[in-house]
Amino acid sequence: MTAGTERRRTAPAAAPARRRRWTFDRVSFMAVFLGLPLLIFVVFVIVPFVQAVYYSFTDWGGFSPDKDFIGLQNYVDLFHDDLFMHAVRNVALLGFIVPLVTIVTAIVLASFVTVGGPSSGRIRGVRGAGFYRAVSFFPFCIPAIVIGLIWAQMYDPSSGLLNGFLTQVGLHGFANFPWLGEVSTAMPATMFVIVWGFIGFYTVLFVAAIKGIPAEVFEAARLDGAGRFRTIVSITLPTIRDTVQTAYIYLGIAALDSFVYVAALFPNAGGPANSTLTITQDLFSTAFTRGQFGYATAMGVVLALITLAFAGVVAGVNRLSKGRSEGRA
Amino acid sequence: MTAATTPTVRASTPRGAPGRRAGGDVAVGITSHTLLSLWSAIVIVPLLWVLMSSFKTTKQILDSPFALPTHLSFDNYVSAWQGSGIGRYFANTLIIVGISLAIVMLLGSMCAYVLARFSFFGSRAIYILMLAGLTFPVFLAIVPLFMLLKDFGMLNSRPGLILTYVAFALPFTVFFLYSFFRTLPDEIYESAQIDGAGEWRTFFQVMLPMAKPGMASVAIFNFLGMWNQFLLPIALNTDQSKFVLTQAMDSFATTAGESVDFGALFAAVTITVVPVLAVYLLFQRQLQGSVSQGTSK
Hints:
Mean pLDDT of chain B: 82
Low-confidence stretches of chain B: 1-20
Oligomer: heterodimer
Largest sheet of chain A: none
Order of helices and strands of chain A: HHHHHHHHHHHHHH
Strand content of chain A: under 5%
Largest interface: A-B, 122 and 115 residues
Order of helices and strands of chain B: HHHHHHHHHHHHHHH
CATH superfamily of the largest domain in chain A: MetI-like
Strand content of chain B: under 5%
Structural class of chain B: mainly alpha
Number of helices of chain A: 14
Largest sheet of chain B: none
CATH class of the largest domain in chain B: Mainly Alpha
Distance between the termini of chain B: 29 Å
Helix content of chain B: over 70%
Structural class of chain A: mainly alpha
CATH class of the largest domain in chain A: Mainly Alpha
């Protein structure tokens, strides 16, 4: 290795490896820099994850030391557990609708903010874009439990702002309407709260992604006579598709959880007729109220599998649609 | 700069149908302003309503929920801060989040630095392990974590909570800073080594200061994440005297019915929201820059 080639190398990882001497400085450095964080990470994150999988095959009650290995019995029971299957259906609905609505709305808002301005001159967003962007980000700074509390008050049948507003504009049918007490509205109302909490962050995320697209691309499209809608469909979306995929997966994970929101909105876990019961709520009460730790961890494993399947489907759809649009081009 | 480029760009736009374009612009402008202000209103109005209600008595809130407060009274804030103990929970949160944040930033940057700039046997495996820690739901780990802390005698203790906060914030921190440390030029590391700095000094005096922008962004996200953390404290920290703010809020949510002091509730919500919102407004630009950075991996 000559001095000349060395100077030209830029790969950061390769360079230090070539002349490693095991001095005290270097050994202590590696031990502390890598060992300490890894120790904490493995003990408090990896070990519990692995233990969870093991416990899910036992009938462990939690507070007694004896636990018997019972194979897949917990999982078989789960499939015959009506309450749990109900929770799975609720969560599937949350995982399908919340990311979809959030992402579509966020992309629309982000498009207005970035390229919604006049069609003459520089490509730019609407006036006051900074204000809109800052305001829509607010909910991300508010703890989810507080978001839930605020909206529980907003939805209050008699003293909530929502019914107050609706009756004010003449919809008297909504006076004292219990948004969170009706089976038909409890779930949509919950979804709205989650979407409300997330849209701002994803708007800002998509604004950043759209701003990363060179302005020349939009200008060229405009010269070719493409309108705004066409520009969004044909240029913005294909370019930011990987950001959309990441957002979809993150949102899906959050929606499949949803624990905080339902905990804040429904003092009686599950909501009306368990229409908003989530897997996480079922897991939490199974473990910490009823003390069935083995059974609860099996629920956790099912939740993790659903999450992984969800991520896999999103990534798969993205890959398939990418292949199709490239094939057409 | 923009002023200089505008005329040339404008010259290159088609002049085909200026009338139609201008008309379309107005329509699009009105539509986008309408939709954007509508959404801003949906975000802001509930927050303003909470703020307004926090100055009213519980009786006023229930009797005339939409009327302005008759006079500016801070009684609710006093009763929330002292009676409901928000003051103590605020201090608890500050201590736990503050210490956790300092530790996770230090350990996370060290780990990211080693993974990004040294290649050794197993470094890739560690990276993938971190990815797994980021993807799996915390709920899967919560039961074993509870037993683990119990066995260590750290259940319902600050050190236990801080360690779990740190452990679960580590993967994100390492990921974000990993990509940051990779972009730092190699020459600087080498010249520090040639000048006789050991690995420790190279990191703390040369490399870490260069990672400041990345550190700031990660710190903001970690702060928000820890400040808003709910599941970990509610499962692992059940001693009321050690409650954090989110737990105090949860006890408001679960004590439903007539007994709720709504005035104190709205005041408590305001106390929780305002500091974070203030931090956000201060660091707004920093944060919005970092959102794009975080996803460019």
